[in-house]
Design brief:
- The protein has 152 residues and is mostly helical.
- Helices cover 53% and strands 3% of the residues.
- The termini are close together.
- It is built from seven helices and two strands.
- It has a two-stranded antiparallel ribbon.
Length: 152
């Protein structure tokens, strides 16, 4: 038997439940900003601009706000699930936020040049996204652990 908290007639005790309910839920953007700190975003912007300069001969001129928009659109793409990327910018689609946020050509440029690190390949197979993983691991390990954990 696994007990997550003391129960009274099948309902958690009031103090435990009230503490949980007092917390105001965060918006998706607030959660995103917890993981993507200003320092991390600035590094990604700088790295992406450098990679664009190396690949294209000119900087992508990516700014912090544009990176946030790009990340939001990438999350939406993963959520909506159209078959082709061009469908998000189609005039017949209901995704006007794509057309209003960034040109499709600009989106492709950013997607092609987006880099988290300029490090060269090594024994680490995830070297290209290691800075992103480090940010997530740091945040995940900082989450307070409850003493009463139950795995079913």
């Amino acid at each position: 038997m696994c007990s997550v908290g003391k129960k009274e007639h099948g309902i958690f005790q009031k103090p435990i439940l009230l503490n949980f309910l007092k917390k105001k839920p965060k918006t998706p953007v607030q959660y995103l900003l917890e993981y993507f700190t200003d320092e991390f975003v600035e590094k990604v912007v700088e790295t992406t601009n450098q990679v664009s300069l190396l690949h294209n001969g000119k900087s992508a001129n990516l700014k912090r706000e544009q990176l946030y928009k790009f990340l939001a659109l990438e999350i939406m793409i993963g959520t909506i699930g159209y078959r082709r990327l061009a469908m998000y910018w189609s005039k017949t689609s209901e995704t006007t936020s794509f057309r209003n946020s960034v040109l499709r050509i600009r989106f492709h440029l950013l997607r092609h040049n987006l880099k988290f690190s300029l490090d060269q390949p090594s024994d680490d197979k995830l070297y290209s996204i290691r800075p992103l993983l480090d940010v997530f691991y740091k945040k995940i390990y900082a989450i307070p652990k409850d003493e009463n954990v139950c795995v079913l």
